[in-house]
């Protein structure tokens, strides 16, 4: 099969981690007889420096003309003082909106080899952590009107949180469909005790529930959900929630699995052309040091093969290779055990070596 992948290396550690994912994809292509071609796309700080815009129209067009997009990360202190609508992260919001990818799926799954890296007690981890957060991605407060006004020397800032029934329904359906393919449990997270947008959210979810009798729907307030994720994450299978709540809860969920560097994500709309990226940022504190964990990006590439290219065996091959590398004791710094006894059985490796090891462990599934 021939596939064209738009590659956004981005800023900070972005180029380092994307290079590893590209190496792994090339390994998969060689193993299974596919051809992956790459179209380089500038987005974020690098695009501001080169083109004066975090996502020039020609770059968005390249993404729309691809079969899918693989992104490292964007942003960094260098661009802290540029105006809000020109910030690197604005390029990312425009890319998501331009691609129409309204559903962001983030798995929170603990790798047994990394169980001790979780900050949670062993008794909680041993009950299992394996859930997915389905987050609405192109609506809500991040896409509402933002303004700061000054009256009589006093500034007032406003951000509008708006959702239409149609926007809630389309992400709700993704939640129900995802739950249907797993254990049939869906938890809808909102703040209906305070927000109108959440009351509409809840009403739409309950209307949809009638169409999915095989799925058990529960409701949870977002503040309680934040507590339950650390108290007993084993209770969750699929969580569906709005943009900002999903942003915050998915970072919390990533931490309990060990490291933010391990978690991939997929963002899809109504076509198979998706956006795949690790959930972490550009980590400027470790950029250029060859110590970043590339596994979140490598696993994002695996999600791309599974969900956009319909290549489940190839996706399994990548996930199995990651597991084999962890079994063999190789760890980047962020997932090195803190316990000296456990660390003695592990070997610390850098970003490039981790990419080489995963590529070397690829076997046909
Ligand atoms: P961050 O995720 O970049 O870093 C948080 C911490 O996690 C840092 O200590 C970092 O070293 C560590 N870390 C992150 N990824 C790692 C990896 N792969 N391996 C090892 N350690 C890793 O979050 P931040 O510091 O709040 O943000 C830095 C920049 O990234 C900001 O400009 C922010 O706006 C941007 N950002 C971009 C995205 C994106 O591109 N999708 C997402 C979040 C933040």
Strand content range = 15-25%
Mean pLDDT: 95
Secondary structure tally: strands: 14
What does the overall shape look like? globular
Q: What is the chain-wise order of helices and strands?
A: EHEHHEHEHEEEHEHEHEHEEHHEHEH
Tell me the distance between the termini.
Answer: 17 Å
| Order of neighbouring strands in the sheet with most strands | 2-1-3-12-11-4-5-10-8-9
Provide the helix percentage. 40-55%
CATH class of the largest domain: Alpha Beta
Number of helices: 13
Remind me, CATH topology of the largest domain?
A: Isopropylmalate Dehydrogenase
Bound molecules: nicotinamide-adenine-dinucleotide
CATH architecture of the largest domain: 3-Layer(aba) Sandwich
Number of domains: 2
Overview features:
alpha/beta, 365 residues, single chain, globular, ten-stranded mixed β-sheet, two-stranded antiparallel ribbon, 2 domains, Isopropylmalate Dehydrogenase, binds nicotinamide-adenine-dinucleotide
């Amino acid at each position: 099969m021939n596939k064209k992948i738009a590659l956004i290396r981005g800023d900070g550690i972005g180029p380092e981690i994307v290079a590893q994912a590209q190496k792994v994809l090339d390994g998969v292509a060689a193993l299974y007889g596919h051809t992956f071609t790459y179209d380089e796309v500038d987005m974020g700080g690098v695009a501001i420096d080169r083109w004066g815009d975090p996502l020039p129209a020609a770059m968005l067009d390249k993404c729309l003309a691809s079969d899918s997009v693989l992104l490292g990360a964007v942003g960094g202190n260098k661009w802290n003082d540029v105006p809000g609508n020109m910030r690197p992260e604005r390029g990312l919001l425009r890319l998501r909106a331009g691609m129409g990818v309204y559903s962001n799926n983030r798995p929170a799954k603990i790798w047994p080899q990394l169980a001790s890296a979780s900050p949670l007690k062993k008794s909680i981890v041993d009950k299992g952590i394996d859930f997915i957060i389905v987050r609405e991605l192109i609506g809500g407060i991040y896409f509402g009107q933002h303004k700061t006004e000054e009256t009589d020397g006093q500034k007032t800032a406003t951000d509008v949180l708006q959702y239409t029934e149609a926007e809630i329904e389309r992400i709700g359906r993704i939640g129900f469909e995802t739950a249907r393919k797993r254990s049939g449990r869906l938890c809808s997270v909102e703040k209906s005790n305070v927000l109108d947008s959440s009351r509409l959210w809840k009403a739409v979810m309950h209307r949809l529930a009638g169409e999915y009798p095989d799925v058990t729907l529960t409701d949870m307030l977002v503040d309680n959900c934040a507590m339950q994720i650390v108290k007993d994450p084993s209770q969750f299978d699929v969580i569906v929630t709005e943009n900002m709540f999903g942003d915050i809860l998915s970072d919390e969920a990533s931490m309990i699995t060990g490291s933010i560097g391990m978690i991939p994500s997929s963002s899809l709309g109504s076509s198979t052309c998706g956006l795949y990226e690790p959930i972490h940022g550009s980590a400027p504190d470790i950029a250029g040091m060859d110590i970043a964990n590339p596994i979140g990006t490598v696993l994002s590439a695996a999600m791309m093969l599974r969900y956009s290219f319909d290549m489940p065996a190839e996706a399994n091959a990548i996930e199995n290779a990651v597991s084999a590398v962890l079994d063999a004791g190789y760890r980047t710094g962020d997932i090195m055990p803190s316990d000296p006894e456990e660390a003695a059985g592990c070997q610390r490796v850098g970003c490039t070596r981790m990419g080489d090891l995963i590529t070397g462990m690829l076997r046909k599934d």
